[in-house]
C-alpha cells in the first residue's frame, strides 16, 4: 500500500494541494485554525515561536484564524513565501470533505494588506536580460505604480536595488544565479519560460486596451507580461495597475548608491539623514513621494522651476501654507485604499477614510485659488462629491469591518435591510420577555437563555432547580452543574432570529459590494488626484521646512556656482552653532583642494555643497544666504575608506572601483566630491594616483570638483593650474590645545593636527608625546615635498603636452605656469 492511501481524506487533500506549492509554506484552514504540517510545521513553529504538535503522526503547528495577518507578517519578513488555503464552503453544509483551495500566495513584494505594510513603497522588481540589456519592471502592488527601467550592466541593477525599497526580485532562470550571488539576502524567485509567453496579450487584457504601443515598452514587454502573470499567481484576482512610466536617465540627476549613502540622503546605516530632516509631510503618499524626489532630483530647468514656483508661492503665503497643510492632515493613504478597492479587499473603514479624504478636496481647491500662482495647479485637482455622498449615505460613521454583521450599512439606505434589522431587534426583545415569562411560570429564578453553535438557543437550569422543570421543556444537554432545554416557542424565536441574521448577512454584503463596485468606476480619476495631493503635500512640506530652517530660493545659471553662507542641511540641525561657509566656482575655477586637520569640518563642507545642489534640483529652497547654481547631471562622491566585506574587495580596491566609475562616467556637468583618495595604499602611490586623477578631472572632464585630502602635497596643483584652488579650515592654537573654527578660507593647512586630535580623543599622554617626537624626526627626513616640487617644475609640463590637451587647457596650464 502506498503511503498516501493510508492517509485520511483530509490529509490526502492537504497533500494534493501542497504538491502545487512545494516552494511555499502551506497554511491549511481547519475550522478556527490555519494548520501547517510536516516540514512547514517545523519551520513555522520555530519562526513564530508556537507549539509543534502532531496529527496522525505528522508534525503539525497551527495559528488561530483571526491572528493570521500578524503571523503572516512575521513569516514573510523572515523570507518565506506563504500559500493560504481556505475552506471554500461552510463546513456545516459540506457533503463529505470540505472543499479547500489556495486563495492567495503571499510574498514580500506582493503585499496589499495594510497591516503588513509600512507607509513606504514596497517594490517588486522583475529583471530580465535580453539582447545585451537588463530590462526591469518595478511594481508597487499596494499603490498600483509601475516603473520601467533599463540597465546596461548587472552592477547597475544591483546599485539600484541598494537604494530603493525593493523587497523582492523575480527573474528568468538564466540570470537567477548571478543575481542571487549579488543579493543573497533579498527574496528572489525564478520564473520559468511559461511566464514569458504571450506577454503582449497579457498586458492588453490587464489594461483592457486593444493596443499597447503608447506604453513604449520596447524590449521590456516580455518581462512586463511575466510580472503580471506572477502577480496573478500570487494575488489570484485580476490585476489592477497604473500605466507604466519609463524612468529615463536624462530626466533625472543620477545618484548611485554610494552617493546616496555618502550624502546620507535617506534612512540607512548612518542614522541622521536628509529625508528625516525634511520629512514633515502630512500624508503617507507625500512621505513616499518626498523620498522619491530626494533620490531623483530633476535635471530639466523648466521642471525644476515648476516646482520651485509653487514652493515659493507657499513660502510667501504662510497663512495659506498652514491652511493647506491642515487640510492635508485629514487625508488618508488614498492610493492604497484604491488598490484594495480594485482587488475587492477594501474594508468599510477604508470607505469612510476615503470619504473623509475626498471631502476636504474642495477646501483645498478653494484655498489654492486664492493665490494666483497656485490657480493652475488647483485646476488639475478634481472633486468627487458623488463618491463622498454615496459613502456618506451608505456607510455608518464608525462601521464594523465585517460587512454582513449588520453594522456597516447605514439605516435608511435599504428598506429591506432595515426591516430585517428591526425584526432582529424585535426578536431579541421578545426573547428577553420570554425569559422573564418562563421564570415567572416555572418559579425557576436562576433560569437563563443561552446560545451555542450546536443547539442554538437553549434554556439553562441549575441542577438544584431541576425538580421545577415543566413538561414542555425538552432536555438537550447535561452539564456538571446544569441542564439545558429547548421549547417549541424558543425554537420559533430562533428560526426568526436566524433567518433575519442570514438575510442581513446576505443583503449587507451585497450592498457593500455594490457600493464598492460603484466607487471603483472612479479609481483612475481619484488616483490622478491622489498623485496631485501627494505632490501638494511634498511642495507645501518643502515650503514649510524652508521657512522653518531659514532656507532661501536658489537661482540657476549655466556658468556660475556661488553659494553664500551655505550650511549642511543635516549637520546644522545637530550642532549648536553651525558656521556657514561660501563656495565659488565658474568655468575656470573648477577644482578645490581642501586641506585641514582631522575633525575640522572638511567632509561637512564638501557634503554641504552636494546637498545644496541636490535640494535646489528637487525644487526646494536651500540652506544658504544666497545661491546661484548650475544644473548638475550627476553628483559623484568618493568618501572615506571602507571594505566591502560582502564581495570580498579590499579597501583599496573598493576605492579604485569608485575612482574608475567617476573617471569613466563624469561629464563637464557633473559635481565630483572626493574625500580622501589614495589613502588605502602607500603614500607615494596614493599621492600619485590622487594627483593624476585630479589632473584628468580638471583637464579632460572639466567637471566641478571638491577634493578634501590629508595629502598637503596635492595643494601644489594650484601652482600648475590656475583653475585649481586651495582651501583650508581655520583652527586656533591655544594653550589648551587646538580649537576648530570651522571657517573655510583660501590657503593650505600648515599642520595636520592629527596628534592634537588624538589627544582630544583620549589617547594617553605618553603616546601623544612620543608621537610628537617621531613626527619631528620623520618630517625632517621627508623627501616627499622636494620630489613633488620637482614634479611641479619640470615633468608636469612634459606630461601635459604629451596628452591630448585642447587649446584652452594649454592656456590654463600656461596661466598656471606664469603664476
Ligand atoms: N561648519 C561647521 N560648523 C559647526 N560645526 C561643524 C561644522 N563643520 C563640521 N562641524 C563639526 O565637526 C565635526 C567633524 O566634521 P567633519 O567630519 O566634516 O571633519 P573632517 O575634517 O572631515 O574630519 P576627518 O578629516 O577626520 O574626516 C562634525 O561632525 C560637526 O560636529
UniProtKB/TrEMBL annotation:
General function of this protein: This protein is involved in the repair of mismatches in DNA. It is possible that it carries out the mismatch recognition step. This protein has a weak ATPase activity.
Listed GO CC annotations: cytosol
PANTHER family tied to this protein: DNA MISMATCH REPAIR PROTEIN MSH1, MITOCHONDRIAL, DNA MISMATCH REPAIR PROTEIN MUTS FAMILY MEMBER
Annotated HAMAP family: MutS (MF_00096)
GO molecular function, one term: damaged DNA binding
Protein name according to UniProt: DNA mismatch repair protein MutS
GO biological process, alphabetically ordered: mismatch repair
Domain DNA mismatch repair proteins mutS family: 670-686
Family per record: Belongs to the DNA mismatch repair MutS family.
Binding site for ATP: 596-603
Superkingdom in the source lineage: Bacteria
Keywords, alphabetical: ATP-binding, DNA damage, DNA repair, DNA-binding, Nucleotide-binding
A Pfam family this chain is assigned to: MutS_V
Source organism of the structure: Thermosipho atlanticus DSM 15807
Amino acid at each position: 500500500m502506498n503511503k498516501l492511501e493510508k492517509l485520511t481524506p483530509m490529509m490526502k487533500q492537504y497533500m494534493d494541494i501542497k504538491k502545487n506549492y512545494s516552494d511555499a509554506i502551506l497554511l491549511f484552514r481547519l475550522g478556527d485554525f490555519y494548520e501547517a504540517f510536516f516540514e512547514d510545521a517545523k519551520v513555522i513553529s520555530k519562526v513564530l515561536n508556537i507549539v509543534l504538535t502532531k496529527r496522525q503522526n505528522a508534525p503539525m503547528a497551527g495559528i488561530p484564524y483571526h491572528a493570521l495577518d500578524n503571523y503572516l507578517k512575521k513569516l514573510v519578513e523572515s523570507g518565506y513565501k506563504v500559500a493560504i488555503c481556505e475552506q471554500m464552503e461552510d463546513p456545516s453544509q459540506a457533503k463529505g470533505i470540505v472543499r479547500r483551495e489556495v486563495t492567495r500566495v503571499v510574498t514580500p513584494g506582493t503585499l496589499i494588506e495594510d497591516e503588513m505594510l509600512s507607509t513606504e513603497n514596497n517594490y517588486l522588481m522583475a529583471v530580465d536580460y535580453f539582447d545585451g540589456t537588463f530590462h526591469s519592471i518595478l511594481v508597487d502592488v499596494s499603490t498600483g505604480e509601475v516603473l520601467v527601467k533599463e540597465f546596461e550592466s548587472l552592477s547597475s541593477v544591483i546599485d539600484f536595488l541598494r537604494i530603493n525599497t525593493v523587497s523582492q526580485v523575480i527573474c528568468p532562470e538564466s540570470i537567477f544565479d548571478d543575481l542571487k550571488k549579488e543579493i543573497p539576502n533579498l527574496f528572489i524567485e525564478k520564473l520559468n519560460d511559461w511566464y514569458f509567453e504571450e506577454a503582449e496579450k497579457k498586458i492588453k487584457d490587464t489594461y483592457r486596451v486593444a493596443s499597447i504601443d503608447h506604453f513604449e515598452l520596447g524590449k521590456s514587454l516580455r518581462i512586463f507580461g511575466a510580472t503580471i502573470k506572477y502577480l496573478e499567481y500570487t494575488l489570484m484576482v485580476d490585476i489592477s495597475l497604473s500605466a507604466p512610466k519609463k524612468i529615463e536617465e536624462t530626466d533625472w540627476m543620477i545618484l548611485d548608491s554610494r552617493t546616496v549613502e555618502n550624502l546620507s540622503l535617506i534612512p540607512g546605516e548612518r542614522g541622521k539623514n536628509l529625508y528625516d530632516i525634511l520629512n514633515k509631510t502630512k500624508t503617507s503618499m507625500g512621505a513616499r513621494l518626498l523620498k522619491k524626489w530626494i533620490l531623483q532630483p530633476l535635471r530639466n530647468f523648466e521642471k525644476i522651476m515648476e516646482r520651485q514656483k509653487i514652493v515659493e508661492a507657499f513660502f510667501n503665503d504662510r497663512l495659506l501654507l498652514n491652511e493647506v497643510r491642515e487640510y492635508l492632515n485629514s487625508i488618508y493613504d488614498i492610493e492604497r485604499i484604491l488598490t484594495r478597492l480594485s482587488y475587492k479587499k477594501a474594508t468599510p473603514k477604508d470607505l469612510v477614510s476615503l470619504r473623509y479624504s475626498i471631502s476636504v478636496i474642495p477646501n483645498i481647491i478653494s484655498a489654492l485659488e486664492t493665490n494666483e500662482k497656485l490657480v493652475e495647479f488647483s485646476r488639475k485637482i478634481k472633486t468627487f462629491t458623488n463618491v463622498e455622498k454615496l459613502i456618506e449615505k451608505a456607510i455608518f460613521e464608525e462601521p464594523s469591518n465585517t460587512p454582513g454583521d449588520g453594522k456597516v450599512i447605514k439605516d435608511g439606505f435599504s428598506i429591506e435591510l432595515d426591516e430585517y434589522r428591526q425584526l432582529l431587534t424585535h426578536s431579541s426583545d421578545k426573547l428577553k420577555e420570554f425569559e422573564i415569562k418562563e421564570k415567572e411560570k416555572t418559579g425557576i429564578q436562576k433560569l437563563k437563555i443561552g446560545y451555542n453553535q450546536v443547539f442554538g438557543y437553549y434554556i439553562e437550569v441549575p441542577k438544584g432547580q431541576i425538580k421545577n422543570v415543566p413538561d414542555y421543556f425538552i432536555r438537550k444537554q447535561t452539564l456538571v452543574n446544569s441542564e439545558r432545554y429547548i421549547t417549541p416557542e424558543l425554537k420559533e424565536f430562533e428560526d426568526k432570529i436566524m433567518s433575519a441574521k442570514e438575510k442581513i448577512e446576505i443583503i449587507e454584503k451585497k450592498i457593500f459590494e455594490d457600493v464598492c463596485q460603484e466607487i471603483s468606476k472612479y479609481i483612475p480619476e481619484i488616483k490622478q488626484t491622489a498623485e496631485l495631493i501627494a505632490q501638494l503635500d511634498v511642495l507645501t512640506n518643502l515650503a514649510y521646512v524652508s521657512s522653518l530652517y531659514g532656507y532661501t530660493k536658489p537661482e540657476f545659471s549655466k556658468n556660475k556656482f556661488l553659494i553664500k553662507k551655505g550650511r549642511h542641511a543635516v549637520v546644522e540641525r545637530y550642532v549648536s552653532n553651525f558656521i556657514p561657509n561660501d563656495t565659488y566656482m565658474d568655468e575656470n575655477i573648477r577644482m578645490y583642494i581642501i586641506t585641514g586637520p582631522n575633525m575640522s569640518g572638511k567632509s561637512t563642507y564638501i557634503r554641504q555643497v552636494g546637498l545644496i545642489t541636490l535640494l535646489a534640483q528637487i525644487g526646494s529652497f536651500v540652506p544658504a544666504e544666497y545661491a546661484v547654481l548650475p544644473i548638475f547631471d550627476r553628483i559623484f562622491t568618493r568618501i572615506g575608506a571602507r571594505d566591502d566585506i560582502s564581495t570580498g574587495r579590499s579597501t583599496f580596491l573598493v576605492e579604485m572601483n569608485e575612482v574608475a566609475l567617476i573617471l569613466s562616467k563624469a561629464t563637464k556637468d557633473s559635481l565630483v566630491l572626493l574625500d580622501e583618495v589614495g589613502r588605502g595604499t602607500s603614500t607615494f602611490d596614493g599621492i600619485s594616483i590622487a594627483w593624476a586623477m585630479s589632473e584628468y578631472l580638471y583637464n579632460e572632464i572639466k567637471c566641478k570638483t571638491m577634493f578634501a585630502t590629508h595629502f598637503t602635497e596635492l595643494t601644489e596643483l594650484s601652482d600648475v593650474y590656475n583653475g585649481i584652488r586651495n582651501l583650508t579650515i581655520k583652527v586656533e592654537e591655544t594653550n589648551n590645545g587646538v580649537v576648530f573654527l570651522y571657517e573655510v578660507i583660501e590657503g593650505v593647512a600648515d599642520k595636520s593636527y592629527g596628534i592634537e586630535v588624538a589627544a582630544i580623543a583620549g589617547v594617553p599622554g605618553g603616546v601623544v608625546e612620543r608621537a610628537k617626537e617621531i613626527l619631528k624626526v620623520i618630517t625632517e627626513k621627508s623627501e616627499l615635498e622636494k620630489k613633488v616640487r620637482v614634479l611641479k617644475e619640470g615633468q608636469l609640463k612634459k606630461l601635459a603636452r604629451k596628452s591630448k590637451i585642447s587649446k584652452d587647457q594649454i592656456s590654463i596650464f600656461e596661466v598656471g605656469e606664469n603664476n
